[in-house]
Amino acid sequence: MGKVKIIGIGDDGRSGLLPQYEQWVEESRFLAGGERQLSFFPEYQGETFMIKGNLRELKERLRSQQEKAVVLASGDPLFYGIGGYLSKDVEADIYPQPSSVQLAFARMGQSWQNAAIISLHGRTITGLAQRIDGKQTVAILTDEKNTPNVIACYLKRFAMTEYRAFVAENLGGEKERCRWMTLDEMEQAECSLLNIVILKSDEAMKVWPLGIPDQEFVQRKPDKGLLTKKEIRVLTIGQMNVQHNSVVWDIGTCTGSVAIEAAKIAKEGAVYAIEKNEADLENAKENFRKFRADVTAVHGKAPEGLAEFASPDAVFIGGTAGNIEGIFDECCSRLNPGGRIVMNVVTIENLYQAVQAFKTRGFQAELTLAQISRSKPILHLTRMEGLNPVYIITAKRAEEEK
User: Fold this and answer.
1) Confidence bin at 64 (pLDDT 50/70/90)
2) Distance (Å, whole) CA 105 – CA 96
3) Structural domain ending residue among the three candidates 50, 69, 97
4) pTM of the full structure
5) Which pLDDT does position 400 carry in this prediction?
6) pLDDT at residue 239 tops 80
């Protein structure tokens, strides 16, 4: 058979196709597409295949198909579409239409080469805050769950009110509608299911750097010693080797400072935090909102609750509450290949216990003693004042060290 033809089609249906594309559809004996795409060809005489959560079956059909086959896809099949999936295993020629993002920016009359493009279609909205924070133009592909209303409510929760929204509905179709809205207006608006949301800010965007100043965090008063200090936090994050797509656990999150710093790096990943003290957890949640870090945080005493988290690439253990064995069992058994577990301790006894516990589980521990001093004014002079020394334990599976 010849190559499969994957043809992009817009909401204007067959009237938006080139005559050559229409001819290919008419000459084919197998036509696949979503319900909307197939409805544009009600008189088609060949076999039709409706795409609805059955892409693997479609791929197998195309690989065994002996006659001319056409697959219809929305807009550009290679832009969050099925083109990339099918072309990995099926010989195909791809003929795109303008994508919904291109059309939406065209309706806005604004350039989009610097825009961040995020798909929430079939995906969770969790983590969106850190993914878009600091970006002046963001295009979001929506679905029936992640609607403009839901997106507006979510953004307001993280005080992202610097954005205006451009909502483009039914692009290219008879019911096309495009309009600017505030977040308040978008939260209440009735929108078609076929839409794209573009967020635009004309304000200077502030982005918190790695090493957020300690005083910026909401924390327990008067006892402020439970915050992982900035310098130790930066060293800890470095030892955790957090990547843009890492899954991170923060056990004993307290103020949430490590989870927040990790979330700023793992924008395409996920961060989970657990805290046994309810008041501390509320402080952490307030910090998550302030620093726009969408962290999945639970109230509980580890290892209870860890089973609900996705398996981690990096773990920070800020405290064990006397349950080191149970926590180590869960962390060491669940850690993804190549992952790291980092634990900060301040006493020699806890250091020895932790290193031995890692060793018995087949992990090798690397130790760093961090002794940090900060300058402090004294009259017209300056002296150095030391912070508490901290042992930073970094554990990796012993076989991965060979």
Assistant:
1) confident
2) 17
3) 97
4) 0.89
5) 80
6) yes
Residue range of the domain that includes 273: 214-401
Identify residue 322 by its one-letter amino acid code.
G
Residue found by looking up tokens 């896809």 in the block: 73
The answer to whether 133 and 127 are in contact (CB under 8 A) is no
- Looking at the fold, whether 31 and 119 belong to one and the same domain comes out as no
Q: Is 55 in contact with 71 (CB distance < 8 Å)?
A: no
Asked if 155 contacts 148 with a C-beta cutoff of 8 angstroms, the reply is: no
Q: What gap in Å lies between CA 96 and CA 103, rounded to an integer?
A: 13
Extract long-range pairs of 109-113: CB within 8 Å, 24+ residues apart: 110/137, 110/200, 112/137, 112/139
139 and 159 co-located in one domain: yes
pLDDT digits (tens, 9 = 90+) for 245-265: 999 999 999 999 999 999 999
DSSP string covering 34-87: -HHHHHT-TT--SEEEE-SS-HHHHHHHHHH--S-EEEEEES-TTSSSSHHHHH
Q: What is the tens place of the pLDDT at every residue in 301-356?
A: 999 999 999 999 999 998 777 789 999 999 999 999 999 999 999 999 999 999 99
Assigned token pair, 326: 């149970």
